[in-house]
Amino acid sequence: MLGFLRKKLKAVFSGKQEPKAVKSPKKIKKAVSGPKKIVSPQKSTPAPVKREKKSIFKLFKKDELVLEELELSLLECGVALEVIEQLLEQVKSAKREEWKAVLKREISKLLMPAKIKIKAGEKPYVIMLSGINGTGKTTTLAKLAKYFQNKNKSVVIAAADTFRSAAIEQLKVHCDKLGIKMITHQYGADPAAVAFDAIKHAEAKKIDVVLIDTSGRMHVDTGLMKELEKVKRVAKPHLSLLTVDSTTGNDAVEQARAFSDLIDGVILTKFDVDERGGALISVSATTGKPTYFLATGQKYNDLESLNPKKIVAALGL
Fold it and tell me: How far apart (Å, rounded) are the C-alpha atoms in residues 315 and 282?
C-alpha cells in the first residue's frame, strides 16, 4: 500500500502525470468567451419600428405647434375662444400645409358685407339701432343720418333712449349740427311710443328715413331686452342693426346671442381703435348676420363698407 502511494506522489511531482485541475482553464475560457457571441447579435438588431414612432411623434408635435400659433394669432386679434375652436376644427380637416389658407377662406366666408337698399314704396324707411352701453350707438346713429343726407334723403330721428341720463341732450347736439328734426318725449317715457310718433311724423312730412335710437342695455338685463322687443314690434323697422365695439373680445359672442333674434345685421364701431376685426368675426360666426358698416373715426363721414380682405389681412396670418 505504501509503495503504491509513493509511486503516485512521485509521478505527480515529476510532471509525468498532469493534475486534473490543469484541464479546467479550457472550460473557463469557453465559459468566458461564450457570452461575447451572444451579445453581438443584440447590437445588430434592426430598429425601423423605433424610428417610425419617433417620426410620427415629431409630426404630431409639429401639427400641435402650428395649431397653437394659429390659435394665438386669433386670440391676439380679439376673436372669441369659442369661435377659434370652431374655426380650427374646420382647418384640421385639410392638409397641414393648407391650414392657413383654409383658415383665411373660412373667415372670409363669415364676413358678409351688405348695403342698405331702399325700394320704391318703402317710405319712410325705418332703421332701429341697438347695442350695449359704450358701443358708440348714438354717435353711429348720427353718422347714419349723415350717410343718408349725402344720398339726398331726408331724415328724422327718434330719441327712444329715455332711460340713460343725458342721452336725449347728447343726441340733440348731433341733430342740431346736422340740421335734422328729433322726436322726443320726457325721460322715463315709453320708448315704443317715441318711435311710433317719429314714424307718424315722417309719414305726414314725407320724410325718407326714420332712425331710432334705443337705450343701451346689457344683454343680461331681461327687462330692457323685452322693452327693445316692444320697440321693434311697434316700429316694424325695415332694418334692425346691432352696434358692436371692435375691442369687445370674448363677450362679443354673448352679446351676439342675446341680440341675434332682434337684428338683421351689424355695424362695427371703433374700428379705428382696433382694425383687426376680431369681435366682428365672433359676432358674424355666432349670428350669421351681415355687416353693413364699419365706424372708422369720430367724424360724421367716418362710415365705410366692410372689406373682408382687409380684415383677413389685418389678422396677420
Answer: 13
Statement: the pTM of the whole predicted model exceeds 0.90: no
Same domain, 274 and 195: yes
- Coil, helix or strand at residue 240: strand
Q: Are residues 62 and 100 in the same domain?
A: yes
Grid coordinates representing 133 are 352701453
pLDDT tens over the chain, length 317 residues: 444 545 554 554 454 444 444 444 444 444 444 444 444 455 555 555 544 444 554 555 677 888 888 999 899 989 999 999 999 999 988 888 899 999 999 999 999 999 999 988 889 999 999 988 888 899 999 999 999 999 999 999 999 988 877 889 999 999 999 999 999 998 889 999 999 999 999 999 999 999 999 987 665 667 778 889 999 999 999 999 999 998 887 788 888 888 999 999 999 999 988 888 899 999 999 999 999 999 999 899 999 999 999 899 888 77
Residue 217 lies in a domain: yes
Provide the domain limits for residue 105. Answer: 54-110
Which amino acid type is present at position 87?
L
